[in-house]
Amino acid sequence: MSDLSADVAVIGLGPAGRAIAHRCAAAGMDVLALDPHPSRTWTPTYSAWADELPSWLSESAIASTARRPAVWTDRHRVIDRTYCVLDTHALQASLSLDLVRVHAGTAVDVTGTRVTTVDGTVVTARHVVDARGTLDSRDLAQQTAYGIVVERERAEPILEGSDAWFMDWRTDNGVRPGDAPSFLYAVALDDHRVLLEETCLVGRPALHLDVLRTRLHHRLARRDLVPTGTEDVERVRFSVEPPPRSRLHTPRSGPVLFGSRSNLMHPATGYSVAASLASADHLVDGLRTGKPGSRRALHTWTVQKLRNLGLRTALSLEPEMVPQFFASFFSLPVELQRSYLSGHDDAMGTMTAMLRMFPTLPVSARLAIARTVVHAPRRG
Prior knowledge:
alpha/beta; seven-stranded mixed sheet
């Protein structure tokens, strides 16, 4: 048992926690980071829109870029916005913790200024940042995916000349009418390898990985690619919404929540890494001034409410309506797409995107949206 102190204590060393610890230390703050396995190597595939990434991020952290990724909704569409796949190992290395005191331990009691670990170690700090991610709870909306990694030449027929498939909603994956939909996500991991992934965007519950594996193999076989069974596999399951504070047992005066544990996870897409990287310096400024929760708070809260409406809409749409919903979305000007997908404090842009979409949707989709507005749930 020991007692430690710092300016900032960061709990969790995934991308969000490591980013905030790295940037706080770069700003000259005394930082202590706590994680059960602080040296664990990251393995997931992280992606981002290029314009989301902060200028301070090393270019070495970008593994590949798709200048004009494509979607297939009701037809083929090109998104005029560069999409990046991050080099997971280079990203982790670039967020150096050389100036951070790192301790292995599991937090069991967390307040705004104090952390107690399972072995009785007590950490006191001016500010505690909780970046431990969201909870793995099946009653929270989740995203699931199953993918394989193949050589670039094998993937060319699947890409069909596109730089990448951000979403391919075609139904050559063996689904029957009324089945919950899934889409193909296909991106280059580097110059030689491509990830082909069948994805359940969101569900409560989400599709099981075995279902997605079957659908992916069916889809690829229809496109003349038969998996050998020796390919590297990626399995994905995570909650796309943060748990209520009541479930975290943290009061409003508790730790600063960051990353997917906060509202930086986009509930309708599951993306949070780029938003966490981009928001790190804003939080650093707040921690230095002693007001970590005050900056852009109203706009961020409003955007999150609007995004939660988008999540509930996605959950309530009939399966055949989902591709039409995204057909309307990707018909928007790219500036409005950016506002909705990436502008976590752009309340006006997010609202404008949603209002522009609404009249272009089928009547059944508009009715689903109306029902989600009327029956908006309350969360503790």
